[in-house]
Amino acid sequence: MKNLIYLLSAALIITSCKTQTGMKHNPFFEEYKTPFGVPPFDKIKNSHYLPAFQEGIRVQAKEIEQIAQNTEPATFKNTIEALEFSGENLKKVSHVFFNLTEAETNDQMQKIAEMVTPMMTEHQDNILLNDKLFQRIKYVNDHKEQERLTTEQKRVLDEYYKEFVRAGALLNPEQKERMRALNKELAMLSLKFGDNLLKETNNFVLVIDKEADLAGLPQSVRTAAAEEAKQRKLEGKWVFTVQKPSMLPFLQYSDKRELREKLYKGYINRGDNNNNFDNKAICAKIIKLRQERSQLLGFKTYADYALDIQMAKTPERVMNLLNSIWTPALQRAKEELSDMQMLSNAERNNYNLQSWDWWYYAEKVRKARYAFDEEQLKPYFKLENVLDGVFQVTHKLYGISFHEIKNAPVYHPDVRAFEVKDVDGSHLGVLYTDYFPRPGKRVGAWMNNIRDQYVQNGKEIRPVIVNVGNFTKPTADAPSLLTLDEVETLFHEFGHAMHGMLTRCSYPKVSGTGVARDFVELPSQLMEHWATAPEVLKMYARHYKTGELIPDSLIQKLRNASKFNQGFNTTELVAAAILDMDWHLATITDSTDVRKFETDAMNKIGLINEIIPRYRTTYFKHIFDDGGYSAGYYSYLWAEVLDADAFEAFEQSGNIFNQEIATRYRQNILEKGGSDEPMKLYIQFRGAEPNPDALLKNRGLK
Asked: I need a labelling partner for 122 at 20 to 30 A (CA). Which of 136, 212, 663, 700 fits?
């Protein structure tokens, strides 16, 4: 769900400046004179942000006061719609700023964030706790049957009413003041968590100065590590980081067990090193304050509060889903471990496998069982070809096309911009792609809006979308060659991009990805199914040197091994989702031991020592940084029930590009955003509720 104001993202950061300097020729105070009105990144300076935020807050506060003081009877138009389209300048700077603090931040911006965060939090509270404004919203909500509202308008009204109530609009004055204090403290703690995590991620490196210590590593991995070392002025050495494009190949192929352990522990101990960047106390404090805030609003736990507006609705339904997956997943993981231990024993090793051994021995078992090495795929997964592949898939499904905009301003040389056109040639929006890791970019992959889609005064505003990733970088000898996981991630984020790009709503509140959190992953996860379909691989998987298409024999090996290691993959994912739920169902005190809580939670469900949760508490950004997935990490699995069932519709038709099904999916899911109840939209597309067994079948667990 989109917040009332697009603010307080994972890295809420801005730069300090003198207000008068920032006001002069500030791009945020002018109409963008750029292709399709995209932000003039080449003209935006750090000194522009603070004045733009200050002026944006001032103007929106004035607009809000006019709405609240309006003496005319409250209506959807003069209250809800007026609120929805208030703060245009603030949204303008927010969309740019919050994207850059995620993808291209710096020390100066991070320092200023500490000043801006409480300012923005206070502004949001001033709106959400404005009693006169809320009374007008309540009046419209109580009398909505007297207005001829569309389904979308009813949905927008409902979203606003719930947002104000959940923010504390019904509290007494004393409780509202406490709510303000909680919001401010939580915002600052979240900001600190993210800053610590970025520093911990950037600070750890494994430097190798002996070629013998590279044993087992493919040449492409060695070359990438040598170039990383060169960039760090360590020529003649090899550097590995805890960014996944660097770390995972090392864990997968390195014969040096002690070095695998060192790199792996550098990753899993981020935020848990008892140093200046330690996140344990921050995590405990965040949970405690969320708990207090939820109880202030009448909810038993934060999980009850968070889930009240999601498809799942209750913690019980979430835990039922997770428990139904946990048992078969853990059993399969134990079988996988047994196979790997047998192989290790056959090699005359005298140790029990540990978590840092899993990728290495899983790769050995895969080679032995399927004669399949993922390194065989990489020459066929040149980034540009994969991107062209996802372009072709969406063209075949929806008729849309992508055209690079060479003169569009970008915020980093790695970024590319594309105009997206519909089947009739009309403009749909602009897509930015940003795929390589760098120190100023947070880890992971994501999609964001730089401009929402909506209709105002009869004019449709089309979106500007960004897809960001941290994929394998090009080297001096080869272009960016993606791993299978990176290919699937690119398709995943592209699914989010299509949700934001193809939307046809009237209000930004519910356009695009403005949907329930456990519904938003449907378009992204559904898109992953096309990534490795044989007919799709034949469209884009060409050898980067010869241009030859991927051979059928390799595609068959990939398909044969497609369910391999799913016990591990599912177990670590469900473990993280259960850890998230346990944190947000618990009663936390100042003396709570974060390490012990995590250990106890995993022991309770019987997680084996050779696997840890996909995210440990101190670097669980999904739930502690921006909080977007707090008590919600289960969403990926909830949505997988939907996406597995949805793809079956294409498969059962005998054509994964079935135009009738694709059109129905576009019209009922992608175009509708959050303008109606998610299950209602899904049923309109599929004809029935999803079959829960589809998830287990999709993962090969049934």
From this structure: 136
User: Does 337 reside within a domain?
Assistant: no
Q: Is the pLDDT of residue 210 over 80?
A: yes
Average pLDDT, the chain: 94
| Strand-pair partners of 382 | 481
Question: 627 in a domain, yes or no?
Answer: no
pLDDT at 644 over 60: yes
What pLDDT, on the 0 to 100 scale, is given for residue 172? Answer: 97
**pLDDT confidence band for 117 (50 / 70 / 90):** confident
Who's near 553: CB < 8 A, 6+ residues apart?
none
| 106 & 247 share domain | no
Distance (Å, whole) CA 245 – CA 247? 6
pTM, two decimal places = 0.94
What 3-state class would DSSP assign to 519? coil
Tell me the average pLDDT across 252-258: 98
Q: Encode pLDDT of 393-414 as tens digits.
A: 999 999 999 999 999 999 999 9
Number of domains in the chain: 3
Each residue of 453-484: pLDDT tens digit? 999 999 999 999 999 999 999 999 899 999 99
Are residue 155 and residue 234 in the same domain, yes or no? Answer: no
**Which is the catalytic residue, given 486, 493, 572, 671?**
493
Yes or no: say if 666 and 401 are a contact pair by the CB < 8 Å rule: no
Yes or no: say if 109 and 117 are a contact pair by the CB < 8 Å rule. no
Angle at 165 between CA 161 and CA 170, to 5 degrees: 125
Q: What does the buried/exposed string (b/e) look like for 147-159 if buried means 16 or more CB atoms within 10 Å of the residue's CB?
A: eebeebbbbbbeb
Residues contacting residue 539 through CB under 8 Å, at least 6 positions apart: 389, 392, 393
C-alpha–C-alpha distance, residues 209 and 42, integer Å: 40
Amino acid at 366: R
* Maximum pairwise Cα distance, the chain: 84
As given in the structure block, the two tokens for residue 152 are 């979308």
Residue 526 and residue 647 in contact, taking contact as beta carbons nearer than 8 Å: yes
Whether residue 166 sits in one domain with residue 264: no
**Of the candidates 449, 477, 475, 474, the residue with the CA atom closest to the CA atom of residue 464:** 449
Of the residues 495, 512, 529, the one at which a domain ends: 512
Q: Give the list of residues 6+ apart from residue 453 with CB closer than 8 angstroms, or none.
A: 429, 460, 461, 462, 463, 500, 503, 504, 505, 508, 511, 512
Tokens of 564: 């391999």
The reply to whether 230 and 160 lie within a common domain is no
β pairing state of 205-208 and 464-468? unpaired
For the residues 227-250, what does the mean pLDDT come to? 96
SS3 sequence of 606-671: CCCCCCCCCCCHHHCHHHHCCCCCCCCCCHHHHHHHHHHHHHHHHHHHCCCCCHHHHHHHHHHHHC
Distance, CA of 62 to CA of 529 (rounded, Å): 48
- What share of residues in the chain are helix, strand, coil (percent, to 5)? 60, 5, 35
Dig out the tokens for 77 from the structure. Answer: 């138009």
**Pairwise CA distance, residues 630 & 307, whole Å:** 10
Active site includes 227?
no
In order of 89, 223, 368, the CA distances from 81 in angstroms are 17, 56, 62
Residues spanned by the domain of 507: 383-512
Gap between the Cα atoms of 530 and 379, Å rounded: 19
Pick the more confident residue, 8 or 685.
685
Query: Is residue 476 in a domain?
Result: yes
Domain of 435, CATH number, reads 3.40.390.10
* pLDDT reading at 487 higher than 60: yes
The CATH number given to whatever domain includes residue 158 is: 1.10.1370.40
